């Protein structure tokens, strides 16, 4: 069984999120989503519209997602890979030119997926304010 792991906040769930999860799931047999906790988001200067519990509930309802775990820090990735026997970590393509996650290649495959054009949580929030 090939296991895939991705990370994110997944606030204001939209079709870009669904397409990303579908593509990530297609890379293996079992998809684990590490969902940023409210506390971790706060440490990054972010605040989600929906609480962690609600975002987790929504992700668990998506057929592409097999397991949702909390993302509580940047440093937990190696532990997640080892604990959940991950073969591939999926990150957004906006990280592809950064060496920030290169160390993960020592533990598993690292794949960068493009985001869906024309949609982002930031854009949705901006439009809702207008």
Keywords, separated by commas or semicolons:
Cyt_trans-like; 22% strand; 5-stranded parallel β-sheet; alpha/beta; 5 helices; G3P_cytidylTrfase; 130 residues
Topology (elements, then pairings):
Elements: E1 3-8, H1 15-25, E2 30-36, H2 38-43, H3 52-60, E3 67-71, H4 77-83, E4 88-92, E5 109-113, H5 121-129
Parallel strand pairs: 1-2, 1-4, 2-3, 4-5
Question: What does this protein structure show overall?
Answer:
The chain has 130 residues and is of the alpha/beta class. Helix content is 32%, strand content 22%. The chain has helices spanning 15-25, 38-43, 52-60, 77-83, 121-129, and strands spanning 3-8, 30-36, 67-71, 88-92, 109-113. The chain has a five-stranded parallel beta sheet. The longest helix has 11 residues, at 15-25. 25% of the residues are buried.
**Strand order, biggest sheet?**
3-2-1-4-5
Instruction: Tell how many strands the DSSP assignment holds.
Output: 5
**Residue ranges: pLDDT <50 for 5 or more in a row?**
none
Q: Mind describing the biggest β-sheet?
A: 5 strands, parallel
Strand percent estimate: 15-25%
Rounded mean pLDDT score: 92
| Cα distance spanning the termini | 46 Å
Helix content: 25-40%
Q: Output the helix-strand order.
A: EHEHHEHEEH
Helical run tally: 5
C-alpha Rg (nearest Å): 14 Å
Structural class, please? Answer: alpha/beta
Shape: globular
In short:
This protein is α/β, with parallel strands linked by helices. It contains five helices and five strands.
């Amino acid at each position: 069984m090939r296991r895939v792991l991705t990370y994110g906040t997944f606030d204001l769930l939209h079709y870009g999120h669904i397409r990303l999860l579908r593509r990530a799931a297609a890379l293996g047999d079992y998809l684990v989503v590490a969902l940023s906790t409210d506390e971790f988001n706060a440490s990054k200067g972010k605040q989600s519209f929906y609480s962690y519990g609600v975002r987790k509930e929504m992700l668990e309802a998506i057929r592409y997602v097999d397991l949702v775990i909390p993302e509580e820090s940047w440093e937990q990735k190696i532990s997640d890979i080892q604990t959940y026997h991950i073969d591939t970590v999926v990150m957004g393509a906006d990280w592809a030119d950064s060496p920030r996650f290169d160390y993960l290649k020592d533990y598993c495959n690292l794949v960068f997926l493009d985001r869906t054009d024309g949609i982002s949580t930031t854009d949705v929030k901006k439009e809702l304010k207008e």
